[in-house]
Design brief:
Blueprint: H1 13-46, H2 53-84, H3 91-102, H4 118-149
Length: 153
Amino acid sequence: MITVDEVELGPHPLYNLSIAAVLVAVCTAMHAAGLLGVNAWMRGKLSAGTHGYWAGLWLLVRVAWAIIVLHLLEILLWALAFVGLGCLPDMGTAFYLSSITYTTVGYGDVVLPVGWRNLSSAEALTGILMAGLSTGFFFNYIGRALKMSGTNN
């Protein structure tokens, strides 16, 4: 059994909370800006008037790629924070932990030090929220793709 004396308690919980709040805010801003940018870019592509099955399919592929890139950038942000705060020794480990935490897979083979573990919870909640935003955005483009292919009667 591990005693309190054997564990480094880490920073004050309010410090943890403030770091988590900043990371959540930055991820939310990145995601919103990214989705708005993708929407503006795709609106220009849609105005070209291309229709049909393949045009709709290609639209969804590009939107999916853009959303995945946004999520990877947010995972990278958390990984950089983990290394910058001294929670993890290298970017490879940090990106791995961040990706399995953000996606809520959570294998448990790599964890943050005890005093920093609440950041993992904040990252998981952020990942769930950003996935929800992405799902709504993607669902909107499925409707557009159906219209483009002529299958939405």
